[in-house]
Amino acid sequence: MNALTGRRYVIAGIFIAVGIIYLLRLFYIQVINDTYKLSAENNVLRYVTEYPARGLVYDRYGELLVYNEVAYDLMVTPRQVKELDTADFCRTVGITKEQFIKKYKQARAYSPYKESVFEKQLSKETYAALQEKLYKFQGFFVQSRTLRKYPQEIAAHTLGYVGEVSEAIIKKNPYYKMGDYIGISGIEKSYEKELRGRKGLKIMMVDVFNRPKGRFKDGIYDTLAISGLNLVSSLSAKLQKYGELLLQNKTGSIVAIEPSSGEILACVSSPSYNPNLLVGRERTKNYGKLFVDNRLPLFNRALMAYYPPGSTFKLINGLIGEQEQVTSRETRYPCARGYPVMGGKPKCHPHPSPMDLPGAVSTSCNSYFCYVFRSIIDNKKKYPSVVDGYNAWREYVLSFGIGKKIHTDLPQELPGNVPTQQYYDKYFGVNGWKSSTIVSLSIGQGELGVTPLQMANIMCSIANRGFYYTPHIIKGIGESKQPHPEYKIKHQTKIDARYFDPIIDGMQGAVDHGTSTAAKLKDIVICGKTGTAQNPHGKDHSVFVAFAPRDNPKIAIAVMVENGGWGASWAVPIGGLMIEKYLRDSISKPEMEKRMLEGVVLSTENKSKKETDKK
Amino acid sequence: MRKSQRGIFSNIDWITVIFYLLLVGMGWINIYASVYNEEHQLITDLSQKYGKQMIWIVTSILLATVILIIDGNFYAAIAWPLWIIVLISLVAVLFFGTEISGSKSWFKIGEFSVQPAEFAKFATAMVLAKYLSQLGIKMTDTKTKIISTIIIITPIILILLENETGVALVFISFILVLYREGLSGNFLLFGMLMLVLFMLALLVDKLILLIVLFSLSVILFLFMRKSRQNIFLLIGMIVVCSSVIYGVDYAYNHLQPHQRKRIDVFLGKEADIKKAGYNVNQSLIAIGSGGIYGKGFLNGTQTKYDFVPEQSTDFIFCTVGEEWGFVGTATVILVFILLFLRILFLAERQRSQFSRIYAYGVVSILFFHLMINIGMTIGLAPVIGIPLPFFSYGGSSLWSFTILLFILVKLDAYRLDILR
Ligand SMILES: [Zn+2]
């Protein structure tokens, strides 16, 4: 046993050795090494979040649509606040003493040690005045942030806006911290990830007077903020602005798309608002005002409003008839100021009869397309039952990108509605319906609901003779200058290219000498179709769809003027002006332009006010 | 008169008690500083950690007094039953415990939580002392080695099941006790070798490590005396080393992500300060920023809950470093080392083997805690969440360290009575 008592010295030796090693290490880090030491002057480390510049947005010609403006937030770290001259502080910042106490309490409640925003977005004058006195206000400092600016004041719905992240988002996504900004609607939302960039973290040394003393350890622990990607929108700012002017004092929507690419050239929803209203300190207040406005300026009609497509839907029915081999260019059907089979309903306007397919398109004969619709659905040789016929017809319709979301790159897009067989089974009972029951579909009325975006997209399919690219608003992301890959995929309709000519002939005829002559232009062949969307709540909606030029089309457009009545009265001239503006950048019919710009179409929803300036 | 005086306080080693009070007091002051804010200044504020710690300190002193009152023979007598009870509660907590930050090792009783693993430390120390102090037990016997290993390993396994890796590692320190009682010094060396191998296994690819190991063996084989014993020894070493390498590799890959991250950071595999290395970096900044004399009581800026997490428990030493400087940290380490040496002195003056062995158990546990806890705050040990004895916030740990130490104080005070 005695031999072992010596071992206590080994053990004591281990204790002492570890003790000495630790003391040396501590002496090194606390006394010798300056790396970890902050001098008495630099005794506070401040963790400053570096906010990256949010990406800019340009239009298709390089015109700036969205940029950033620097703003200054006054921050506070309550623990570091020492005695200060409150009166002087309040005067400088421009708040009352009560506000000061309230804000200070809020900041304390959030955290005594973490910084929080004391006053948002100081004016430049306040900032300048404060900057000089900041040394007197320990615990306060200014952090620069950027605010979005929309120099063109257009396309509010499309561009969207940014706001502070909600608690719910912070919980779901740890990237976001209290007070961060996030895109809430429009491009700002759907391209949030691209636009936001990545936040950085800077560790600053600050002295007791709250003055920055440089970077901690020369910034080796800092992470750099990475700017967001710039986006190139397919919008033409000029066309967009023109469209918004044409729709002023009217309710409605214009969507223009380049058929060969699916790029959205203009996306107007009226009434609109100035996008700069939803920026910064005034955002909440302005949002509240817009929100309660009963003209619904926040509602993006281009993507969210359902309209019956009206006569424009005859184009699709004609195409399906051809593809199904039940109609051809030469097919003629009678018209007796209405559909003879059902005793003259639906009604039609006076025109020569019987007509061939292009003629029926040009004159927009209702009877003709009722016949077409019936022969598609009641094609007993091909479809044993009405249900089979209807489902086959519906598949054709869906292939044009309606009745389902087309997944454009704007949020809030709605699918529209093409009734299902189940819907009719439920409504009329199983086997309780036939083609005549749902004949209103042949002329685009009934339960059909199509958004203006989808109508314009139908035009693209026709302009392209059978396919479309998903309409999208961003044609270039960052350095790549490419859109998301899904927007380069061709979507085929179920109609073969050769069936388009009779319909397109009819559309050309409609503009040349038919229902849409108000859109006619010298030297540019426009193919168009009017529509009148039945509105059970008031005056019918005026619809016009078109593309131009006929060969190698550059623009496809859908115009919807709510309560505009007969298509030719508002939608056709506006569509014509838009096309001319885009293709020629000049207007050959100034009187018509003046009439459209000055025209007021009051909404008749829920009221029976007389329209002014009626033509 | 003389008799009653002797009852509790006579023969007590006041030096140890003073060191204890010193450490507990310094601990409380630093806990107060680390959670201090203007709104809660009352030291007995129960909503604050220092208020709760005050309760733990008062109850600990009561507990110490009770331990001193109880007859000295009692502890050796209850060693086995106590150990069994602790083992049972270690199992029970797996089923009925509350999970706190990934470890299911707490019984929650109202506001307070109790961790049975803490109490396993002194229970095991007592059982080990009890077993090794039996007549005729020799550390050199294989049977003794095996039974000692079982006594140490059983709580380790149960505590590992609770996900308290840090606490489980503490039991490794008992190797010092076994060494003092006659375990060959080779085991101590072997233990260190294993530690080195353990580190290497984490740092180097296991295939490379195995190749190096085998080539070393081959070289060794070529040059050594080729006796049967040496060859067996060599093969044994190869097998043990390879299994350690594989075992570590396996264990590492089955660790919780946050534990793995801690190891990665300690080994320098990862240097992301905002993630796992954050603690160590912040802790170094805090301690380093203290300088020689520190920033003064309550003037620390880094050791606020923004910067150093867990600063009142595992990272309490940061507050010492920042507010009291090198003077403070050196004092704390000095007091600890002096306490350890004092315990060694007490151990060697015991007449009863049980008391001596138990004393070694106590000092080993305390030493291991000190080494790991302070080591991790200054970047010399992996970030393993174990408290600084007497210092860190927490009732279970303070209670268990108090019991651990005061049983020794009692045994020491009682030593003169033993042979009567
Ligand atoms: Zn007709």
Description:
The complex is a heterodimer of chains A (615) and B (420). With 615 residues, chain A is an alpha+beta fold. Chain A is built from 21 helices and 18 strands. Chain A has helices at 2-5, 7-32, 86-93, 97-110, 124-133, 156-159, 167-172, 186-190, 192-196, 237-246, 283-292, 301-304, 314-323, 357-363, 366-377, 386-398, 421-428, 452-463, 500-513, 571-584, 590-598, and strands at 44-50, 57-58, 64-76, 116-122, 140-149, 162-164, 181-183, 200-206, 212-215, 231-233, 252-258, 263-270, 467-469, 474-477, 490-492, 527-533, 541-548, 555-561. With 420 residues, chain B is mainly alpha-helical. Chain B has one domain. In chain B, helix 3 (49-69) packs parallel to helix 16, helix 4 (73-96) runs parallel beside helix 6 and helix 10 runs antiparallel to helix 11 (228-253). The two termini of chain B are 20 Å apart. The model of chain B is unreliable at 1-5 and 270-276 (pLDDT under 50). The chains are: A alpha+beta (615), B mainly alpha (420). At the A-B interface, helix 2 and strand 1 of A face helix 8, helix 13, helix 14 and helix 15 of B. Bound molecules: zinc ion. Zinc ion binds next to helix 15 of chain A. Zinc ion is lined by residues 335, 348, 351, 365-367 of chain A.
